Fold this sequence. Notes:
The complex is a heterodimer. Helices cover 46% and strands 11% of the residues of chain A.
Amino acid sequence: MLPFKRNKTANETANETGFFSKLRAGLKRTGSGLGQLFSGRQSIDADLLEELETHLLMADVGIEATTQIIDDLTARLKRNQINDPDSLRTALREDMLAILEPVAQPLVIPQQKQPFVILTVGINGAGKTTTIGKLAAKLKQDGHRVVLAAGDTFRAAAVEQLKVWGERTDIPVISQPTGSDSASVVFDSHQSAIARGADVLIADTAGRLHTQANLMDELRKIARVLGKQDENAPHEVLLVLDAGTGQNALAQAEQFSEAVNVSGFVLTKLDGTAKGGVIFAIAKRFGIPVRFIGIGEGVEDLRTFNAEAFVDALLDVSATEKNAS
Amino acid sequence: MFSNLSDRFEAIGKRLRGKGRLTEDNIQETLREVRMALLEADVALPVVKDFIADVRERALGAEVMKSLTPGQAFIKIVHAELVQLMGEQNDALDLSTRPPAVVMVAGLQGSGKTTSIAKLGRRLIEQDKKKVLAVSLDVYRPAAIDQLQRLASEVGFDFYPTDTTQDPVATAKAALGQATTGYYDVLLVDTAGRLHVDEEMMSEVGRIHAAVQPVETLFVVDSMTGQDAANTAQAFNAALPLTGVILTKTDGDARGGAALSIRQITGKPIKFLGIGEKTDALEAFHPDRVASRILGMGDVLSLVEEVERSVDRGQAERMADKFKKGQGFDLEDLRDQMQQIKRMGGLGSLMDKMPGMGQMSQQVGNQLDDGQVRRQVAIIDSMTPDERRRPDVINGSRKRRIAAGAGMQVQDVNRLLKQHKQMQKMMKQLKKGGMKKMMRQFGGGMPPGLGGR
Lengths: 325, 453
């Protein structure tokens, strides 16, 4: 067993304020918190708008979404709907929420006969296996019977990595040796999940760049094989995105959606200085739900995505202000 | 990977082409386009700002006015600026130390460190015939050590088994001990992925570095990284004396702006590109090539040649005129030609750029290296205008004066004059063959013997 060096202490449990302050701590680490922009200002000038634009761009929000937000704020300024920095901040918050709120839909696992199949996909190193480990633990806690499919049969020791997670959380991992056919592992796992009476199957897949046509075909095959078992499977296709990814995340979202019909996103590694702003661009363009965010390596560091908490963390609104409002 | 950014620049280039000259206004518009393109390519905002400032300065300077078409001049400026940003050269691993040479990698989670170690190992074994030992200090991520062990046996380098209950620093020291007693050439040290804001982990990697004293400390970074590349690169650069960067996952379609940002912020060379998942998918980094890909050119040579050719067209036409009027090829013309060579990046690079120049390039290269070109230009500069136009007036006393002025010997002046005479003679022969033929043969109007085309 590997040391659990970075497991969190008990007082850092999953209560809302703990999560909120942690997310905020992560997002404001660069010291370029958007919130600081508004403090100590008496009036709105062109500089403030330009700085705002700068901050949005530096958070990876991207040109398109940034321009839309700034244009809207400028228009509201002209109509005198905004007249001081405070109302500008409120307006900005509204605009950002308007983009993210529609996609803040948590993953709901319905009661059904066949196991609910979650297929996780993404590029290399995005954090798929870690996310699966955390998600499996979470679902188990919620009373689900979970089975894991070690579908990454390409990368050296990927199967072992998932098995360690399985041991940690006491969840069965169905695997075949590295180099075997991924679709066949997933097929076996589905059979096994039914045999064990599990209600959730989470399938890992090898990381792949969305530009590699043959590997994308392999994903299609996995989805097809699952579809033959249960015409509604996979019930959820989770695309795992590294929050540090820039505008290329859009291309990833597009290509993976095209191949396997992505139904939800997981935004990982938000505990660094990456802001994950590209999620705004993705939300605007694809409207696919954002299910979870990853804010650490501990089992409890996978959180349900909350648009308000995310935007407030970006805007650096203090927890007390938020509670008061 | 840079295709979209390339398209973008290509579109900008096309729009500018055909305009009479660059004015402050149309530069403004184009610079905004460049800014957008760079931001969409995930170049860090501060880097973009510097870039825009530089390009603006250059575009409004004299360089643009001299050129023939503003579009080409603009592309040239953007290209030159990009190349400058990417660094000047491709650096290989520097392993010149008493063996074992330690090569260490560090970076964020999921950037591709372990895969890169395997690729480096393979390269060291196959290309450099080194005896390689590798150790993984990642006791945190499940099965990370297994991963390196598998890759080691697949590629064929030795693996130091890590005891996960031990402190990584102690393991690193023990592995170095084994590398020394086992007469290994290289010890590859894989470290755990870590966030640059995790103080404990950053201090650990610092201690590992101090314990094994690597000759190469490589920062491994995902080419798809967004604006945050600036923060992470800065933090890792501050925590570790980095010697270079490995840019991974470049076989995707990311526009690769991170490459520009990291290079600019750390000042450290990007040494390798990861271009696939297999262990042989590691490529040396060529800044000029990447810059041209950004510019939308197949390779840098086609661009430089195109631009340089157009820059030279004015001079070539003037010279053609001269010949038509029956005037000779004087020393001033010789100097112009030499300066053109210098502008194109010296003889060596000029020769390399020219297909079918192999033999001639060797011949001329021996006869005339870049330093010689510079010295010969200095000699001509020391002459009076009259002497340049009519070299026949140069007598012994003038030669002594010219040599002193250029800091050269009289023999050097003689050699130059003799060379010029030979060229004149060849010019005359060619003239008989017809001007058109000569210009076709020598493209931009380079004199024979100087490696013209």
